[in-house]
Design goal:
The protein has helices spanning about 5-20, 50-60, 90-95, 95-100, 115-120, 125-135, 160-175, 190-200, 230-240, 245-250, and strands at about 30, 35, 45, 65, 80-85, 105-110, 140, 180, 205, 215, 220, 225. The chain has about 260 residues and is an alpha/beta fold.
Amino acid sequence: MNKKKYFVYKWIIPLIGRLYLNRSEMIRVIYYHDVVLGDGGTYDKISFENFKKQMNWLLSNGYETLKFGHLEKYDTANNKVLITFDDGWRSNYEIIFDFMKENGIYYNIFLSPGLQQKEPKHYLTWQMIDELSSSGWVGFGAHTYDHIDARSINSSDWNKQIEKANLEIYNHTGQVPKDFCFPYGLYNHSILNKLAKYSSYSRLYTSEYLTSQTINDIEIYGRIRISDKDTLKIFKNKIEGNYDIMGKLKRGKHNGYKI
């Protein structure tokens, strides 16, 4: 991003967001992937130092963090944040778990069990997942079995990508997954309807700036990606909803399905 675009992103977009968006009280949903020691800077990596600064900002400004199960209590609430991680990277246990627990911060992980089994060097082992779940500080949701584009799921692989994923998560966490996140943020009308009608999920999560809404009796949550390059000012504006205008501009165009 060049300097001009960065200036617009850092200053102009949140200014417009503050002036023109009427934000109702809502739970903010943010997401990360991997947390690393040293430099972050890529799409799916954030440095532990930057991550700690963001978490400390939430605590210092009176935000309450939630697990998935808490959403059944708080439909809409001010100063509530749902922290989510995609894929189940080992760092979600090895690097951040002690810090989050010591500071009383709940967080949530969307698991693709196939990744855990195929690449244990990079992703959480079931033993780690058992410990995270038993601690009471971490909630778990589903992310398909093999981390595939959910739009491709048909009747022939539904049992594996949805049912088998749910069963393995339940067997190792004792939690029936009620929350599902679309890998790569990709979805369409067909998969939304299938998940609403035939799955056990209560909530679906996208990867775009959308406010919470109900479609076909299932709750849809938009999430806000947090980057290693986000300054605390940008992070603050994202948490306060001043970048939600980006979702408003894109609404109706994403993946060919109007939300």
